[in-house]
Amino acid sequence: MRISMSRPLALALIAALALPIAGCARNRGKNDVPYVARDVGTLYSAAKKRLDQGRYKEAAALFDEVERQHPYSVWARRAQLMSSFSNYLSKDYTSSIQSSQRFLSVHPGNRDAPYAYYLIALGYYEQISDVTRDQKITQQALDSLGELTRRYPNTRYASDARLKIDLVRDHLAGKEMEIGRFYESRGQWLGATLRFRKVIDDYQTTTHTPEALMRLTETYLALGVPDEAKKSAAVLGANYPGTDWYERAYKLIGDHPAVAMTPIAKGEEIIPLGTPGAKPTLPGSNAVAPKDEKAPASSNSSPSGN
């Protein structure tokens, strides 16, 4: 039995069926590539052409398409790294790092592995923010650069990584100095001292070392330990004698000379009488141990042992 349908009703049904398809088209990202089966050479050439034209996001999407359509081809491995590189050029560092990490998880021993580690390190390095903000990314950049130099020390990527490591360490030292100065401005001398000491102990080859030594001279004097202040000023003078930081430290030591304590006379109380919580004790007297509780007598025991 043939069912007839009026033309207006048929058009309405077609429009209703087309709505979900149109919705999916609107929801598709502008850089997504619709699936069209193509040979690997055509796809890779198209991606390379977009890369040469500076259309980096389109290039990355096409390189991903090479991997999707031809996952077992030789070009798929190369396309993974090219996708990471394209995302790096487009400043999509998160996608670039993820592509390189995926490449290393599948091909850890590939000859292009050093380049993948390099792209990961660059992805973190480019996201380093100023010292007033959180430095988690900076630490990740330092870790990634260090991983590259440890695994592949003789590659050209490692040579560039070593230069960047020095810059990253200087940045981390700058963060410690920023926090130390903040504590010092609030009179929190111990907190400031710990930050400046961290610069000396962990980042002593950075450009912040002379200031850190001068700041330590300040905080040690504020804490009342002039001998430590003198040591910091002496180290500063031995290593950075012609700097303004040494001149400031030298002036501080001259303005705050160490004063010897008056020796305590015989019979004088170390803690003056009247000090809250102090218990007066005669000089030379021995401390008295607390009296033991008397044990209950036992009729079965005898001191004589009889």
Fold topology:
Layout: H1 7-27, H2 40-52, H3 56-69, H4 74-89, H5 93-106, H6 113-125, H7 136-151, H8 156-185, H9 189-202, H10 209-223, H11 226-239, H12 244-255
Condensed summary:
The chain has about 300 residues and is mainly alpha-helical. The chain has helices at about 5-25, 40-50, 55-70, 75-90, 95-105, 115-125, 135-150, 155-185, 190-200, 210-225, 225-240, 245-255. It is elongated.
Could you walk me through the main structural features you see in this protein, from its secondary elements to its overall organization?
The protein is mostly helical and 306 residues long. 63% of the residues lie in helices and 0% in strands. It has twelve helices and no strands. Helix 4 packs parallel to helix 6 and helix 6 packs parallel to helix 8. The N terminus and C terminus are likely disordered.
Mean pLDDT: 82
Biggest sheet features: none
Distance between the termini: 125 Å
Shape, per Cα inertia axes: elongated
Short descriptors:
mainly alpha, 306 residues, disordered N terminus, disordered C terminus, 0% strand, 12 helices
